[in-house]
Design a protein that fits this description.
By secondary structure, the chain is of the alpha/beta class. The chain has 2 domains: about 140 residues, NusB-like (N-utilizing Substance Protein B Homolog, Chain A, Orthogonal Bundle), CATH 1.10.940.10; about 190 residues, Rossmann fold, CATH 3.40.50.150. The chain is about 40% helix and about 15% strand. The protein is built from 16 helices and 14 strands. Strands 10-9-8-11-12-14-13 form a 7-stranded mixed beta sheet, with helices on both faces. A hairpin with a 5-residue loop joins strand 5 and strand 6. Helix 8 packs across helix 9. The N terminus is likely disordered.
Length: about 450
Amino acid sequence: MAAAELRDDRRAHGVRNDPRTLVIKHLATQSRRFPDLDIASFETPSLSARDAGLAYAIDQAVARRWLTLVTVIEHFLKQPWEDLGPNVRAALLAGAAQLLLLDRIPDHAAINESVEYTKRGPHRWAPGLVNAVLRRVAALRLEARETFDPARRDELPRGEGGAWRLTTPVFSEDATIRLAEQTSHAYETLDAWAGRLGPEVMRRLALHDLVHPPVIVTGAGATGAPHAEPGFFVFDGDHAALATMLAQHPGVRVQDPGSARPVAATASLRPTLIVDACAGKGTKTRQLAAVHPDTRIIATDRDPRRAAVLAESVKSLPLVEAIPYRHLEQWRGKADLLLLDVPCSNSGVLARRVEAKYRLRPENIESLRDTQRQIIADTLPLLAPNGHMLYATCSIDPIENESQAEWVTKWHPFRVVSSELALPTGQPGTPETAYRDGGYHALLNASA
């Protein structure tokens, strides 16, 4: 970080216990990191529930539409975006997000707090610039439209459906670049999707990533609006009501239907020992216990924080044992089913992992591919003769999916029993019961 940025940060961030100041401070840190946004939750312990909700909404709106907001803001700038400094960029992003993406926030509140924030910084020009730009952003809104027309340069789609018709065509004349700007994707991502899946599927995927995903529950005791996929329900209560349901019904899981598909593919198997080697926080582990109720399950994860959550998640399941990752070796040659829900690009769940779409760079995908192959190579010795490996990702990229299954069968004695690529479903304005995450899985059998 440059010395000027450090001075900017120290002077601009007096301790003020209000949601907009806290979120702008957080966004200044994120601005320094972009495109590698911090995935840790934005913590607001000092705020009331109402103010914390506002801060979270602003933070999520900016993260989901970062590139869209930058495109709009740059239309009114005379200097390059990167020359503004992180605190000025953060103030503009927070203000523009409130003006264009959030409802029931008075324009003066969104603008004034961003201006006041920059007054505490070292740049005398900053308050005037932020005030002028945000007032022009507010003036862009011509009318709310019930539908979004991607062919227009003067429409900004909204996650809940519809669009803002703008007074000025701020988006690109090129169709793919325009949609990338309107939906906050890198052009290269949409171009790759169009080349692989066709332009119409690419448009659906881009718009899907604007949707605010619902909370979906499944398992014995789950209630809510019936999802399009049987056995799943959209939960519409608050956090306290969800916590009550989970406490009263231990068999209930918060799990998207897309996430549940890989384990469901093992229902016809009769394993005596399952090893879940990338168990994360335990959602698929608990699903394994429901699908295979008489089977012993060993679960672990490399990350100590996730492993701690995993141990707590499965402690009530008598046949499930959470172990340290370093103890996996003792199960060498014993697993009838090995589940590898490997780290991935999250390209099938970008509506949930809003920061991930800015990391979809070729070098990152190639690094993940190598990590996935190393995990496969390290854990294959755990399988018993004629055992099955279930490989799963929440990606829709063939480099992480079909190519990995092909790699396994080329270099190891395995055959693919079944596989599925499921693209995400749900569009802005469509029912929550139609929403589903995307992902891939392949069930492979040791053939020698």
